[in-house]
Design a protein that fits this description.
7-stranded antiparallel beta sheet
């Protein structure tokens, strides 16, 4: 499934770009993600804990990171497996940083592939809603790090593991809310047409 997201950060592109190049600091802002090492070919190894309702999935895997400073674009390709439940996941993320009014617009195009038990939660609407929530939390952490008075303080700021049930519940509420707004909008249109 493909997911496209965008968000604005209240910092200039060069500063946001510099932060994105510090992979260890970026990972501290990603809920549930932890680096465990580097490979000989400079890939990153780590785990990502994802809680979907009653299901907790820990993907163990690796990711490669590419960046082009001249265009402020980057690409992250990762894959992982949940050894306990047998779920597998692949993710390719391409991002672009562009100037925006007073800061930076971050554009993200992602392709997510899930198989095994995790795939039952792979409905596009729910995954997109959860992705948007994760981006919100990532941006809040990024802002806090960039506001820190020094590098030591910034290094101590990290996002706690997201309460999956809470994230799942908020995502479900968001999906239902959009559905209801769509239905109510149709009803309002029908009522106007009758008048």
């Amino acid at each position: 499934m493909k997911i496209a997201l965008e968000t604005d950060v209240d910092r200039q592109p060069d500063r946001v770009w510099a932060f994105f190049q510090d992979v260890e600091e970026v990972v501290k802002c990603l809920p549930g993600a932890h680096l465990t090492g580097r490979t000989a070919d400079e890939a990153y190894e780590g785990t990502v804990l994802v809680k979907l309702g009653p299901m907790a999935i820990t993907f163990e895997g690796r990711a490669t990171v590419e960046a082009d400073a001249s265009s402020h674009t980057g690409r992250i390709a990762g894959s992982g497996v949940d050894r306990r439940g047998g779920s597998r996941g692949k993710l390719v993320v391409e991002y672009t940083l562009t100037p925006a009014a007073g800061g930076t617009r971050v554009l993200v195009d992602a392709e997510v592939q899930l198989s095994g038990p995790a795939a039952q939660f792979g409905r596009v609407g729910l995954i997109k809603e959860m992705s948007e929530r994760l981006v919100e939390e990532f941006v809040a952490c990024l802002d806090a790090k960039l506001d820190a008075p020094d590098a030591e303080t910034a290094g101590m700021i990290e996002r706690d593991t997201v309460a999956g049930g809470s994230l799942f519940l908020r995502s479900i509420v968001g999906v239902i809310g959009r559905f209801l707004r769509r239905i109510l909008g149709r009803e309002t249109t029908r009522e106007r047409d009758r008048e």
